[in-house]
């Protein structure tokens, strides 16, 4: 029964995610649909069972430091991707939602969605898998992201999904990956748009 529930939530959240990224940047519908995605992940994660908080030697400093390190790696990759037209267009397509939206609303949407993903994918989903839980939760996370039809987001979901899954396994709960996800997302949202912004036309 629990696996059926998780499958239904995954399907619903994936469909909503695809619809949210199909709306034009700057559209009010984007925030509404993204909020629906976050609500689906949180509700599904909580209904399947309260996710464990976990324990860590450095419950805040450790996840934050890891987020900063991951951001550094991704920023370096972004400098390279900026010179590869297909990847540059894919990243710019995502960042357009930050450029054309309200700053606080975009930050709130991004951070809440990131936290919601941890509640579901590293909380309920990873807890329900007995064989290769990290690989399985990462695979489902990446497949869900495919609905965005954005290769940059899919690649990021594979890399970061693996990192978050390993954190979940190491600490026994979602607090560490949730903190890392939120801080990493905030750093990416702050630093990447200037790198991929389109120069204004002359005159």
TrEMBL record:
GO MF term set: hydrolase activity
EC number(s) per entry: 3.4.-.-
Enzyme's top EC category: hydrolase
Domain of life: Bacteria
InterPro entries tied to this protein: Rce1/LyrA-like_dom
Keywords: Hydrolase
CAAX prenyl protease 2/Lysostaphin resistance protein A-like domain span: 106-186
Name of the protein in question: CPBP family intramembrane glutamic endopeptidase
